[in-house]
Amino acid sequence: MQTCVFCKIATGMLPATILYQDELVTAFRDMHPVAPTHVLIIPNKHIQSVNELEELDGTLVGHMFLVAKKIAEQENIAHSGYRSIINTGEHGGQTVQHLHLHIIGGQRLRFSMG
Asked: Catalytic: which of 38, 98, 100, 102?
């Protein structure tokens, strides 16, 4: 999608601190981190949200979580713990209309539902 900021990051049209990239996903540091480690993992193809996923995307979503595990190990937060979050829609807190998985850690995180 030509106007999607995450699509532009995945294709190199916009700068970002890329931590991991393969044919399916791109992982990069969040520009507005909420914790010492805040990484976003996005599919390289444009998928607006969880609501737009299709049966064939199951492998992609599984791969996103395997990459999350790698990122957690790489960032030294795997043993202390981290959050994996996907926001969906306006009420779910999704601000960029491109599916993305947040990996947040590096400090004790408080539980909050709003």
From this structure: 100
Name beta bridge partners: 82: 105
Look up 32 and say whether it is catalytic.
no
* Spatial distance between the Cα atoms of 89 and 6, rounded to a whole number of angstroms: 16
Q: Domain spans of the chain?
A: 5-105
Chain segment 64-85, per-residue pLDDT in tens = 999 999 999 999 999 999 999 9
Nearest Cα residue to 21 out of 34, 40, 3, 48: 40
Average pLDDT, the chain: 95
Whether domain 5-105 has CATH 3.40.50.620: no
